[in-house]
Structures are given as structure tokens and as C-alpha cells.
Amino acid sequence: MSYQTSYDSNGGKPFKPNKDRGFWSSSSDFFYACVCNSFRMDVAFGVAAVPFITHGGIFMFLALVMNVILFTYPIVFMQSFLGQFSSSGFISAFRVAPLFKGVGYIALAMNVCSLTFYAIYTAVPILFLIYSLSPTLPWSCEAWLLRNKSYDDSHCSDYNETEELDSYYHLMQIPSVEYFSEQFQTAFSFSLYGCVILVWIAVSLTLCNTTEKIGQILRYSSLSLIALLSIVSLRMMLLPGSMTNIHKHIQYQTEFDFKMCFFMAPMLTLATFGPGWGSILSMASYNNFKTDINKYSWLICFSQLGVLVLLGLLCMFTESHLTSIRPNMVVPTYDQQWTSFLSIPSSLATMEFPHLWTWMFLAVLITGTFNLMITQMFSILTALFDEFEILRLYKVEVTLGLSGVLALISAYFCTENGIYFTEIVAELSISTQAICNLMLLIIVVWVYGRERFQRDVEFMTSQALQTWKINIVRFVTPIFLGVTLLIGFILLMFSSYRYGVPQSINIGVYITLITWLALPVYCVFQLLQTNGTLGMRFKRCVKPTDWYPTDAEQRQQYEETIDNPETFQPLTTIVL
Cα–Cα distance between 30 and 37 in angstroms, integer? Predict the structure, then answer.
């Protein structure tokens, strides 16, 4: 036996692959599922406005491309490798170094926490969609003036300097933003929570399908999302005044803006991995063993960058349009997340056929956030079913039960404090994501080892992985992860002053600290299960356990390969 088994290390049960988990019907489904995972409204409308509103657009784009190459791509590739090689979720994949399986349980907690609040980002557009079915949009100029008993068609047909329109287009009284705030005049928004329930029902019903069916749903919804987003972006570009200040978005205005571009870029590219952790790993676990993860990793990174840029353009066009109407208006900034994307419906209300464009924009938001919830929830279920064999017998019950629990917890975020807390939790996830990805990097290229990693990648993809690329991952990528971690802490501290709700931050920090206790607790547990001195126990626990392809034929070929070092002769001549 060429690999270590659970019996060899701690006398535990060997890993039993889930034979009923299935595969994607097409390798491209992996790509579409990962693109769906990037639609983070908390980042897109909370921070994606930075490249444009801070006047550093072209430099931000260059910074994002650099981060994709040196930061995002290596992590996407490593997660894809772990998932595809092991054919398991983000807990069982740590068979590559069993001592650190606690990171998988941390990832499980992160994904669950992110889903408790992310349903709100789907529910809010659904609520707007329901109320937009009225003959007059509730946040249109006509409806707003009518509610304020000052209705006059002339005020909405042109942009005269009137007191009514000054109030109508004031930042905090942009009708769509004001309409949203009206939902929280009471302690709890029942209408919003009703939409949350609808979202969770749809999510649970979708996940009760087979893997092939879920992949097809994500494929077609992803294509629809990209098409709708492109159409809406092009139409927003034609709004009056949307291109007026385009020059300031191409060149930076101050040295500070130039530095901010490279300071914020790592956090923006981190949106690739969704609000939780390990989704790309889970999506890759449904690939065929020989799928070209190198090609798909590049496609995923740059496609997700394109989605982020399109969402940023929506923010830019809206800002230019609103400021052209009222030059003295204070525009939404990246720290006013809800105001940023909720101001867009007011701009759409000024178009011809406002209902049509409003529905298309809301469809983008609903489709994007719903797809992200599917991928996150799918990742959680994948990890549970792969790690706990008994749960495989109750797939539907576990799916419905977990969805119901998360729906109940989501009720907190339908309150005013809960709405603010969504931003705080999102910022907290930046730090935890950076730590998790840093741990992943250390485990794969340092603990498991550079040469073994190269060997496995070459066996799986039939493509050699050059050592200079590995060295970038080992020495350069950690720098970007460190910067991202620092940014996350800074934003978290800034939130306490921005919202004046430090108790929410304390709760989030406590939850995070408790979650991270899973790592040392599991390490101690694993060490206690083995025999010998502490040094011997540590060496045994970091050795790969049951680390082989789950397919019997591939497993036999892999065993023959690692028994014959001459098979990968180029690796033996590589000198670091």
C-alpha cells in the first residue's frame, strides 16, 4: 500500500467515497457554478463603486488584473485541485493533511453564517419586484410627489430647479432608498421576512434535485444573468448625464486615490470565493478527474472580474446621472452599501418603459444572489454528505431541515439592526476568508509539499506545473493575503464608528473566535488518537490519509505512479 490509511494513522474508519454524489453533466457547468459564486452584492455595491467613484478606474482595473494573476488564480487553482483530486467537499478534502481538518469545520461554520444573512440580498429585490407591479412605480417621481401632495406632471417631465425635486433627489431621500427605509419603521419587517421565506423555499427545492440538474440550472441562470447585466449596463450608459464625467473615472485625481486602488484590489478579488469559503473546492469535486482545471481557473478569475466591473459600471453611471440632475448632490459612496444599489431603481424610473428596465435590473439582482445561495448551500451539503456517511441516507430531510433553520435565523436580519449587521458580517468574512486561504496555501505547498503537489497535478491533468509558478504561490501570494487580512480588520474597526453599534461587532468577533477554536481542538483530538512521542504523532497526523482518486481505475494508476518515481522524472531534477 503506497499511501497511508486511517488504520495506519489512528485506527479510525477509512474514508468511504459517496458513490451517489454524481458529476456535472458538462465540464463547463463547473465554470458557470463558480461564476455564480462571485455575485456578492455586499462587495459589488459596497466596494465595487470604489474603482469608479474614487476616480481611479483605469488604475484599479490594472490593480485587479495584477491581483487575479498573483493572488486569485493561485487560490482558485489550489481549491480546484483539492476538490477534483479528492472528489469530496471542504472537510473530507483535508485528508491531504488530516491534522488541519479543523479548517474544514471552520469553513462549514463560515458558510452557514454567511447564508443566515445573505438571503436578505435576495429578498430585498423580490420585495421591490412585487411592489413594482403597480401601474406607477412607488419610487417614481410621480408617485413620490403624489405622496407628498405636490404632484405636477411638469416637475417630472423636465428637471426644473424646484424645491420638490431638490428634495426628491436628495441623497437620503432618493425615492427608492426612502421606500426601502420605510420598511423598517417598525421593529420587524414582516413583508421582507415573507420574501426571505420564499427565497429559502426556492433554494431547498432546487437543491433536492440531482447534481446534473443543479448544474444545468446554474448554467442557464448564469448565462441569463450575464446577458441581462450587459443589457442593463448598456442602457444605463445612455441615461442623461451618465457619460458626463466619464473622464474622471478613467484617470485618478490624487496620489491617495492611486494608492487606494492597489490597497483595495485584494479585497475586491476576494469576492471570487463568495461570502463563505470552499465553494470552488466543492464545485470542482463534481468534475471529471481529467478536467483541465488550469484553463478553467483562468476563465473563472477573469469572468468574475468582468462581472465585478459591470456592477461597478452600474454604480458609476448612476452616480453620473444623479449628479448631472443635481450638481450639488452628495453621491453614494462605498460605505453606504444599501444606498448605493437602491439608488439605481430611481434612475431607471426616469427612463422610457421604466417598468421593463426596473424588472430587468431586479432580475439581475435576484438571479445573481439566488445563484450564490445555491452554490454556498450546495457546498455545505456536499461537505456534510461526504464527511458523515449516515447523512447520505437522509439527503432530502437534511436539506429541508437545514434550510428551515437558516430561514428562522434570517428573521434577525429583517430588523433595522440586522440590516446594518449584514455589512458588519460581510466585512468580518473578509478577514476569516484571508486566514482560511492562507491556511490552505500553507497546507498544500508547504505541509503536503511542493513536489507531491506538482506530481498530483501532473497525474490528474497530464500537464506539468512549473516550479516558478509554485514559488509565486509560496512567497508572493501570502503577501496579498496578509494585505487582505489587514484591510478586513481596518474595515471592521471602522464599522464601529460608522454605525455606532459596537455591540454587533463584539457579537461577530465572539462568534468568529469561537469558530476558530475548531482548529486547535481538532488538532489536539487528532494527536490524542495516535501513539508515540509528540513528534511522531505530529508527523503521522500531517501525512496524507486515504489520499487517492476515488475512481478505482484512477486509484490503481495513481498507486503505480507514486511507486515508480521515474514516471515523473522531471520532478526529480527540479532544484528550488
Answer: 11
CB distance 52 to 236 below 8 Å: no
Cell, residue 43: 462587495
The DSSP letter of residue 95 is G
Residue type, 207: L
Q: Which amino acid is at 460?
A: M
Closest by CA position to 279, among listed 33, 457, 55, 115: 33
Strand partners, 4: 545
Q: How many CB atoms within 10 Å of residue 324?
A: 17
Distance CA 571, CA 43 (A): 41
Would you say 345 and 176 are in contact if contact means Cβ atoms under 8 Å apart? yes
Which 8-state DSSP code applies to residue 448? I
pTM, two decimals, is 0.88
- Residue 4's SS3 state is strand
DSSP labels for 170-209?
A: SGGG-HHHHHHHHTTSSSS-HHHHHHHHHHHHHHHHHHTS
Could you give the CA distance from residue 223 to residue 225 in angstroms, rounded to a whole number?
Answer: 5
Sign of CA dihedral 414, 420, 423, 424: negative
Select from 7, 19, 17, 13 the least CA-distant residue to 92.
17
C-alpha cell at 163: 424645491
**CB neighbours of residue 14 within 10 Å:** 11
pLDDT in tens, the chain (576 residues): 455 665 455 555 778 888 889 999 988 999 999 988 888 877 766 654 554 444 556 777 788 888 888 888 999 999 999 999 999 999 999 999 999 999 999 989 888 988 888 888 899 899 999 988 888 888 877 776 676 655 444 445 444 344 444 444 444 456 777 777 776 666 788 898 999 999 999 999 999 999 999 999 999 999 998 899 889 888 888 877 776 656 655 555 555 556 667 777 777 777 777 777 889 999 999 999 999 999 999 999 998 888 877 877 777 777 777 667 665 554 444 345 566 677 788 778 878 888 899 999 999 999 999 999 999 999 999 999 999 999 999 999 999 999 999 999 999 888 877 776 776 676 677 778 888 888 999 999 999 998 899 999 999 998 888 888 888 888 988 888 887 777 767 766 665 555 554 455 556 666 677 778 888 899 998 898 888 888 898 988 999 988 989 888 889 888 888 765 544 443 333 333
Residue 361: CB atoms within 10 A of its CB come to 27
Instruction: Give the integer Cα–Cα distance in Å for 329 and 237.
Output: 20
3-state secondary structure of 545: strand
Q: How far is CA 538 from CA 13, 517, 518, 534, in A?
A: 19, 19, 18, 6
Give the C-alpha distances (Å, rounded to integers) separating 310 from 53, 237, 274, 363, 518.
14, 11, 17, 15, 38
Task: Copy the grid coordinates of residue 317.
Answer: 453611471
The CA–CA distances, whole Å, from 112 to 61, 367, 418 equal 32, 20, 16
Cα→Cα distances 459→77, 381, 465, Å: 15, 28, 11
Euclidean distance between CA atoms 108 and 110, whole angstroms: 5
3-state secondary structure of 356: helix
Check if the beta carbon of residue 118 is closer than 8 Å to that of residue 414: no
* Domains, the chain: 6-572 (1.20.1740.10)
